[in-house]
Design a protein that fits this description.
Layout (H helix, E strand, L loop, with lengths): L1 H25 L5 H25 L3 H4 L2 H25 L3 H12 L3 H42 L9 H9 L2 H15 L5 H25 L9 H25 L4 H11 L6 H8 L4 H28 L6
Helix pairs in contact: 1-9, 1-13, 2-6, 2-8, 2-9, 4-5, 4-6, 5-6, 5-10, 5-13, 6-7, 6-8, 6-11, 10-11, 10-13, 12-13
């Protein structure tokens, strides 16, 4: 019962707020305009403030784990390559292929995984995940542009210069880089600046979760159901299980192993739908994968945390 309550208390608040966002939209209290504005505010201001606040207050030498980082990057690349090879064999429709591949390798780490990591491990665990995110997010973007361009129905081209520029100006990456000197050298800011950033940081998670709930739609759920269900199964069960087992065999345990699980068990990022639509891939399939993976991650993430708590990988 103790393990059940621990898992429930850490997972339930995240998804309650998501469903509350969906409920408030149905009641007409919030709308798509709110979701768009909230998403932009979170991405450009609130979440960067949270990442900066967390990293800057933490000893960099304690949160930077090169082994953890390299394993995460290699895992993303492996997932991408295997999924791409298999998809080219079995999915003939190019726009569906691009959306399917992106839906499997691209996780919603910032909005789902990081709040869960913070709930379980506090600032240290959150800072570790923020460092991972600052490297994984650019990789997600590059891989997504490549695969969506190759499978676009409109034949779009993306220049390497444009890709690199978009990566370098990403607010989440900039926040991580700006926080590094404060973390590494133990620098401090004036109290008013610290409090301002902390106030902004506290708005990030609820706004982001409301935005996810408000963005959900079941309009196209019957379209592409076979592919979206398969992508969801691979994203939420196959990948986190294989990554966790491999990590454990390589010597990862405790906090690092649980962080890896939560990073790779995250549902598909909403940005995958936005990019699929913008680059003439199958946006209905992308939307289905986001919806199904987010909904079913309630159960898969809960079970995962329950198991890790039961086998003493989570000490708190």
């Amino acid at each position: 019962m103790e393990n059940f309550l621990f898992s429930f208390n850490n997972v339930a608040p995240i998804f309650i707020i998501i469903f509350l966002g969906s409920f408030l939209k149905k009641k007409g209290i919030i709308n798509d305009g709110f979701a768009n504005a909230a998403s932009k505010l979170v991405f450009t201001t609130a979440l960067p403030a949270l990442i900066f606040s967390s990293i800057s207050k933490t000893d960099f030498t304690k949160v930077f784990n090169l082994r953890l980082l390299l394993f995460s990057i290699l895992s993303v690349l492996t997932i991408f390559l295997i999924t791409t090879c298999l998809s080219y064999l079995f999915i003939k429709h190019k726009p569906s292929r691009g959306a399917f591949i992106q839906g499997i390798f691209r996780g919603n780490i910032a909005i789902i995984s990081m709040p869960l990591i913070y709930n379980i491990f506090g600032d240290t665990g959150f800072s570790k995940s923020a460092v991972l995110l600052s490297f994984i997010m650019p990789l997600y973007n590059v891989l997504a542009v490549i695969i969506l361009t190759l499978n676009s129905a409109g034949g779009e081209k993306a220049s390497l210069k444009a890709i690199m520029f978009n990566i370098l100006k990403n607010p989440l990456i900039l926040a991580s880089l700006c926080a590094m000197p404060f973390s590494y050298f133990g620098l401090s800011m004036p109290e008013f600046a610290t409090k301002t950033i902390d106030y902004l940081a506290k708005t990030s998670i609820p706004l982001a979760l409301f935005g996810i709930g408000c963005s959900f739609s079941t309009t196209y759920i019957k379209d592409n159901l076979r592919l979206s269900s398969l992508a969801t199964f691979i994203k939420l069960i196959i990948i986190p299980v294989l990554v966790s087992i491999t990590a454990y065999k390589l010597g990862f345990n405790g906090e690092d192993l649980v962080i890896l699980f939560l990073v790779f068990a995250s549902p598909t990022a909403i940005n995958s739908f936005i990019m699929a639509r913008a680059m003439n891939n199958n946006s209905n399939l992308a939307a289905n994968i986001v919806f199904l993976s987010t909904f079913f991650s309630i159960f898969t993430v809960f079970i995962g945390i329950f198991v890790f708590k039961a086998i003493k990988m989570i000490a708190v």
